[in-house]
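[[Local backbone shapes]]
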Amino acid sequence: DVPKAPEPRCDGDGPRRGSLCSRHCAAINNVQGDLGDLGCHPHRPRVPPAPCTPCCCQQHSEEVCESCVVKTTLTAENLVEANKLSNNYKFGFKKWKSHVTARPWEDRSEIVKELYSDLNVIRSSGGSTVTCGNVLYLLLFGWWLSPLYVLVAAVMFVTVVGAPYGRLCWRLAGYFLWPFGKVIQKAEVPKSRDEVSSTGETSPLLGGPVPRRWRLRCWADTGYWQRAGAVVWLSLGYPALAVAHGLVCVTAWLLVVLIPVAKLSARTAARVLLLPPERVLVRRLRMTEVPLEGEVILCCYRAVNPYYYKYAVDGINVFAVNLLPLVLVTLVLGYVDSHNHLTSSSVKFTLALLSIMPLSYYIGMAIASISAQSNFAVGAVVNATFGSITELTFYITALIKGSREGNRCYAEIVKSALTGTLVGCVLLVPGLCMVIGGIRHQEQRFNSRSAGVSSALLFLSVGGEMGTEVSPGLGGVPAAWVPTPCPFVPAGVFAPTLFSKVYGKLVCGECHNVTQNPLGHYLCHSCHFDLMENNGTLYYSHVQPLVYTVSLLLPAAYLIGLFFTLKTHSHIYDIHVSDCHMPGHHHSAVVHWSRWRALVILLLSTLCMSACADLATEHISPILTNSTISQYFIGVTVLAMVPELPEIVNGIQFALQNNLSLSIEIGNCIAVQVCMLQIPILVLFTIFYPTNFTLVFSDLHVYASMFSVVLMNYIFMDGKCDYFQGTVLVMVYFILLAVYFFAPSPSGC
């Protein structure tokens, strides 16, 4: 554990310990950087923040100390990793948790070192090998793998020439039934008789050297039988065992926690089974036994390691590696079986949606790698261009399909997905991070000023402030005691919607007279505001220009926010990147992906993303028409949050390390990009390719979005939170999901 830095105190003539200045300095010391990204030795103390000076406290005894400005000190192994860490705190840049460079081996914990080590280390006795994970291996693999070795051993004994390999399989049958606490070693080659005879007596009475012609004949006979046995082994025994171990390796690798079993099987098929049988020794380790001389090939103590979720291959998380074949299966199955002979549309839609998750991970990794290895301008362009490519690809393909089929339901699904992403990133992402982070940390603090920038932009893009007006009084109650809420001031993406509610004509599909009186009450169904009154004069003359104006102003506000946070007011993100100066520390960056490699992966992932989005929109029609669930609910949940799962995982990892600022920024930045970049791009796209997408949302979308943003701003007001506030956000999110679940489907679906 990293030792905590001593809290600065304002001694001397400064104010008392309980003053606002002291409390503010103590709060600042509680703000921690990304401890998971620290490349320093675990026993190296963190750089403490600047202490509060007495003079400052004298001048500002009841105000915020100027020297106590929040400063985040980041410690990185190299310059590339430092750039990645600093980009995490910049507005408009993708927040990425994983390393983009290879971490020095000596800086890693013993748990991580064990994940990447080979199964050839003999350790001291660590207790009993009868564990739940080892029993799971027996139930999954051991019960059938051991009899297979017995069967192959019988076949080898029948061939006679393969008898040595039969004895090897017999020994390995017992090993693979329960391999824990046992070792497979490569025996040393014994010295030849020529070497022994050259150093010993050569008298015939003592057993002199064998004549040369006899030695050649014996060697030839032995070599013949060895070669014949090897041919029989490679023809009959080895293929069956290699296939079995390959099946075990793939299954264990996909289960992640059983990766030690995968390593065990892979090493067996690649080394043990290809050695001469007399060179393989299988033995059980005892506590007091000294290991034999020779190379240790396999030594396994447990089959399950729960920490393998941290395992990475060339910088790629193991889950993203395991989901990559799913992308290939989805593309092949989707475009080869176009007539649904092999699978149904529901299966193809599910596969296409699941394939978006690893592709979004690769896109995020590529963006972080390019930004960390490039200057600020290139990083800003890459983040602005490809930061929302996952969502935009799906939305645009859905709108194109809906335009070709003349189906307005696709446009409504896109609006539901946009609203679901906004509500989920405002409520679910920070709420979930607060709950999970609050389990480990009693109270978490964050930079409310930096969070206020994205919150202000989000508030601007969604709606203005909600005020109160005083009613004239009801039932004798004084007027000042009856506040009533004023409507939201129309602003941002919902301004055209509120404009249409005011000036549009309400049109209903069917109305019934309830009181049987022509002047009585009417009950109407399927009502909506018609913007095409008088041949569309209201829409084309008033609403459409407003839509285009909003679509141009929102990206401009986004650019102003970038300029504000990264140029003129960069002290809000006062970041100091320092290197580790330790013996044996590597300062040279060994990047996982170079810039060109990251660019190629980014383009290929974007191309595959487009194909998967095309398949998802192609096979979503049966789900929309045959499902009894509201189309609102499908768009708000599945289509909105599945592509954001990698971002949610990043936010949870930051929250567990008491870095809630980045967790909040992840959700806020996605929501801001939805309102200020994605929606304007979709509106401008309709200029070049006419679709049914209009910037007029349903009342449910408007109220859910505005309420979520107001609640988020209220929670983030004081710069601190706990698991209870996170629970409130999560509960409100699920309440909104219940509303969408029971809501009727939108008109046109």
Notes: The two ends are 56 Å apart (CA to CA). Residues 1-70, 193-221, 464-490, 580-586 have pLDDT under 50 and may be disordered.
